[in-house]
């Protein structure tokens, strides 16, 4: 998942100079001269805090200042905090992303520290200070939006101000959120903006109206400012209201409510108004239905509610009026609505909001439960290593704890001990299964861990079998508390991982497709992203690049935590992004994706895909011989992993054999193919046909490829077989079938946007097979697969190729003429043309050069 170039966290494309990064844009931002002058006067104060109530216009004022700021003041990096970008790691990772976009080299040790804070967290401020020394004068804008700044980030900022004299920090936050101990330490190094500077003047109200296409005279502008106090959110609403109604000044909020009180969805609106923001799944899960959507849409059109990709927010002037009226007219319903919201927020792990709603509902047990969940969320984010080992008795009684300890051992390199732990966990789980009569929710999770343990032990087919049992159990169990719903994304991705590593890519795709994303509607975006990124990786591995790209795009649209792409959870999306970029010949993007996976490469189960993608990049940079060395070194380094998965074995051996053929080591390629595990399996037929194509038996290559087409399991395999069949047919002179297979291959490549597989054969030969298909030829030109120097094949005619192959058996001119039913002079003429085009002088040289170019 990638952050768009020149964008803020909201995904809006910036048109600002490259010295500024992350600044969002808005069509209705106007120049705020008084505010900008204040910011300029305090340019040398280390920390400036812009504080105001919700809707006071902090962000728009900062955008105005940023747009008018002199680039000579140094770099400016803007980070907008929201629910996703507020933790210490995600905040600083987004900051580093923006620095990289400004061509500032990023310290690798700093990235490692961010991804492993348990080990390197205390070093983080010092590493950040070292990074900022490279950056020179820099201003960091922290736009808190609807979230307070994370305590860890606040402490880092205070420490950085101490360490970095050239750093300037601007923090936009809600009023009252600046009384933090860490900020208080700054003393006279902090400047707090006067809220009066955020209030709109009548002139600015007129300017804002003009930006929105509304004509406003001076008298009406003054009335608006008098009625709203210049509060930005209310000014926006009043301008739109004033354009429709001349008698509106008294009681703006009350008047706006009068316009919608008769709407059938007004009752639903009062419930929705209890929350700061409303997502589509909130309306569905609270049972408010389409009628709520109708009234919210109407409010958006009236300008008193705002909508983005993820949520709707009522302007505070409306929300406060709704809540006041609701509590006064129906106090019990008011409390029950808050109780609904509290339970809803708990289901979605929004514990802070759940606690506030529970307090408002006066449901104290629910409030206590919500607060416990809130404390758990903090503990999880700021987790520390356990101070005591788990007792043996607890491990014997709880398979889940046994699994957790074993997984921790594996992550820390204690492989032998980890495998013992997984085996013990399996024994405990089997005993539990024998003793149980009816499956419980606990059994679901234990079965899941059994599947993962079998996979980590290298027993991939047994893990696949365990997945089938788990799926049946999950469909039949009574999930009253919806625990399976909460864990559904993890169950899906773990099942898909099991199927991938057992070598069943199509089955993995079916597993994800059958379950679908529909059950995840209403769940946090991270859960949908987890499944979407796995879908993207599975389809990229299969060769369905179109679907993989769509899944990645849908994943990006979820506005996920910025640091997710660098976490283990985001690894499948990073792998998919690299594979998609490789298929498009976008080597720089593929490299960028792969570098973000470096931290996880030593421990991930998908190490073989990373090695495969890295080898393709090396092929691009240094050529086939260097790529072969890179691959063999990587395979040697992973021998210590013990039993390799069927997927890793097949993937890497296929790539190695392909590279052996690319460098002309045909005998070694055949030997390598003969030594692969389960070499009689159908999955190796493709490589057998490929080997025959380049070792001089195109007839056998064609027979193998054509016979396997119906059993082709993935788009990548099918297209590869078609390319081999087309090339083999062409080499034996069957141009009709060659054209037919080539047309099918190119059609499939367009359908799935899969191009690299078309370069299984040398580019000159591909140019003949796909002549006239400009998109195919363009894709081949951008590929570095088979980077052979000679281009002579592109000018050899089909008949010249046939004559060339007759030279292998030392056939005389008379024999060749007889076989081809042409005259001796014709054969001589064709031979001269072959020699000339190949740059050789005799038969022996022609055969040698033809073999080097993979023509024979």
SSE blueprint:
Layout: E1 20-21, H1 33-41, E2 47-52, H2 58-68, E3 75-80, H3 88-101, H4 108-115, H5 117-120, H6 124-135, E4 138-143, H7 151-163, E5 167-174, H8 181-184, E6 190-192, H9 202-211, H10 218-228, H11 232-242, H12 252-258, H13 266-272, H14 280-285, H15 289-302, E7 305-307, E8 312-314, H16 316-329, H17 331-347, H18 351-361, H19 364-381, H20 392-397, H21 399-411, H22 415-435, H23 441-456, H24 460-476, H25 483-486, H26 488-501, H27 505-515, H28 525-542, H29 545-556, H30 571-583, H31 587-595, H32 607-622, H33 624-637, H34 646-662, H35 666-674, H36 685-694, H37 698-708, H38 715-731, H39 735-752, H40 763-769, H41 774-781, H42 798-806, H43 813-820, H44 824-838, H45 843-852
Parallel strand pairs: 1-3, 2-5, 2-6, 3-4, 4-5
Antiparallel strand pairs: 7-8
**The biggest beta sheet, please?**
6 strands, parallel
Helix content bin: 55-70%
Overall structural class, as computed from helix and strand content, comes to mainly alpha
Q: Which residue ranges are poorly predicted, with pLDDT under 50 across at least 5 consecutive positions? A: 1-17, 176-180, 246-250, 375-388, 787-794
Query: What's the number of helices?
Result: 45
Report, as a whole number of angstroms, the end-to-end distance: 44 Å
Characterize the overall form.
Answer: globular
* Widest sheet, order of strands: 1-3-4-5-2-6
Tally of strands: 8
- The residue-averaged pLDDT reads 77
- Please tell me how large the radius of gyration is: 33 Å
β-sheet strand percentage: under 5%
């Amino acid at each position: 998942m990638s952050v768009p170039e020149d964008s803020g966290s909201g995904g809006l494309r910036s048109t600002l100079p490259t010295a500024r990064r992350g600044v969002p844009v808005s069509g209705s931002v106007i120049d705020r001269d008084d505010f900008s002058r204040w910011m300029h006067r305090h340019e040398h104060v280390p920390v400036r805090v812009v504080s105001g109530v919700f809707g006071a216009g902090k962000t728009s004022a900062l955008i105005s200042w940023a747009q008018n700021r002199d680039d000579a003041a140094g770099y400016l990096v803007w980070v907008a905090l929201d629910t996703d970008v507020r933790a210490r790691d995600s905040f600083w990772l987004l900051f580093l992303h923006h620095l990289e976009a400004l061509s500032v080299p990023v310290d690798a040790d700093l990235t490692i520290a961010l991804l492993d804070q348990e080990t390197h967290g205390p070093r983080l401020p010092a590493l950040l200070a070292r990074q900022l020394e490279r950056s020179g004068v820099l201003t960091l804008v922290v736009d808190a939006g609807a979230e307070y700044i994370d305590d860890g980030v606040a402490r880092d900022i205070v420490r950085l101000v101490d360490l970095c004299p050239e750093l300037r920090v601007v923090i936009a936050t809600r009023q009252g959120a600046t009384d933090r101990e860490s900020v208080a330490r700054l003393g006279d190094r902090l400047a707090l903006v006067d809220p009066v500077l955020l209030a709109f003047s009548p002139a600015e109200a007129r300017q804002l109206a003009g930006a929105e296409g509304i004509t406003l005279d001076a008298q009406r502008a003054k009335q608006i400012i008098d009625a709203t106090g210049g509060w930005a959110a209310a000014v926006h609403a009043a301008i739109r209201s004033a354009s429709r109604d001349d008698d509106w000044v008294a009681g703006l909020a009350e008047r706006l409510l009068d316009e919608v009180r008769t709407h059938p969805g007004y009752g639903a609106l009062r419930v929705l108004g209890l929350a700061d923001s409303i997502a589509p799944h909130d309306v569905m899960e609270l049972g408010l239905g389409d009628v709520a959507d109708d009234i919210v849409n109407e409010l958006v059109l009236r300008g008193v509610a705002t909508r983005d990709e993820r949520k709707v927010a009522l302007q505070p002037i409306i929300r406060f009026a709704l809540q006041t009226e609701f509590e006064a007219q129906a106090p019990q319903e008011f409390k029950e609505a808050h109780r609904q919201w509290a339970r809803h927020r708990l289901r979605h792990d929004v514990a802070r909001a759940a606690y506030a709603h529970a307090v408002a509902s006066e449901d104290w047990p629910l409030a206590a439960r919500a607060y416990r969940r809130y404390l758990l969320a903090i503990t999880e984010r700021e987790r520390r290593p356990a101070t005591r080992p788990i007792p043996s008795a607890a491990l014997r009684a709880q398979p889940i704890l046994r699994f957790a300890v074993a997984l921790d051992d594996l992550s820390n390199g204690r492989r032998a001990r980890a495998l013992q732990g997984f085996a013990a966990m399996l024994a405990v789980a089997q005993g539990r299964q024998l003793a149980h009569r009816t499956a419980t929710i606990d059994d679901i999770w234990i079965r899941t861990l059994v599947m993962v343990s079998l996979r980590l032990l290298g027993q991939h087919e047994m893990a696949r079998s365990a997945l089938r049992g788990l799926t049946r159990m999950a469909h039949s169990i009574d999930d009253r508390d919806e625990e399976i719903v909460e864990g559904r994304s993890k169950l899906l991705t773990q099942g898909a991982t099991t199927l991938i590593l057992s070598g069943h890519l199509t089955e993995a795709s079916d597993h994800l497709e059958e379950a679908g994303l529909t059950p995840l509607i209403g769940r946090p975006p991270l859960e949908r992203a987890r499944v979407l990124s796995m879908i993207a990786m599975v389809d990229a591995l299969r060769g369905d690049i179109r679907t993989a790209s769509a899944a990645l795009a849908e994943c990006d649209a979820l506005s996920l935590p910025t640091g997710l792409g660098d976490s283990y959870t985001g690894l499948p999306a990073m792998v998919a992004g690299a594979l998609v970029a490789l298929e498009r010949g976008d080597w720089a993007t593929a490299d960028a994706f792969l570098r973000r996976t470096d931290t996880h490469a030593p421990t991930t189960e998908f190490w073989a895909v990373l090695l495969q993608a890295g080898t393709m990049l090396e092929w691009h940079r240094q050529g086939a011989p260097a790529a072969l060395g890179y691959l063999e070194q990587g395979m040697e380094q992973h021998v210590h992993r013990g039993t390799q998965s069927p997927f890793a074995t097949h993937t890497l051996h296929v790539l190695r054999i392909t590279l052996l053929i690319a460098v002309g080591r045909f005998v070694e390629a055949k030997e390598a193919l003969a030594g692969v595990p389960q070499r009689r399996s159908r999955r190796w037929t493709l490589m057998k046909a490929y080997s025959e194509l380049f070792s001089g038996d195109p007839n056998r290559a064609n027979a193998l490829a054509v016979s396997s087409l119906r059993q082709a399991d993935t788009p990548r395999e099918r297209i590869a077989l078609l390319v081999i069949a087309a090339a083999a047919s062409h080499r034996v002179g069957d141009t009709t079938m060659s054209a037919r297979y080539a047309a099918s291959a190119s059609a499939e490549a367009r359908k799935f946007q899969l191009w690299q597989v078309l370069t299984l054969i040398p580019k000159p030969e591909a140019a003949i097979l796909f002549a006239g298909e400009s998109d195919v030829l363009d894709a081949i030109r951008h590929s570095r697969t088979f980077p052979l120097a000679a281009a002579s094949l592109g000018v050899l005619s089909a008949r010249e190729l046939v004559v060339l192959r007759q030279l292998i058996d030392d056939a005389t001119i008379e024999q060749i003429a007889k076989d081809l039913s042409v005259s001796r002079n014709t054969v001589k003429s064709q031979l001269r043309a072959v020699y000339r085009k190949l740059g050789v002088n005799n038969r022996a040289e022609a055969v040698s050069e033809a073999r080097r170019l993979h023509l024979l």
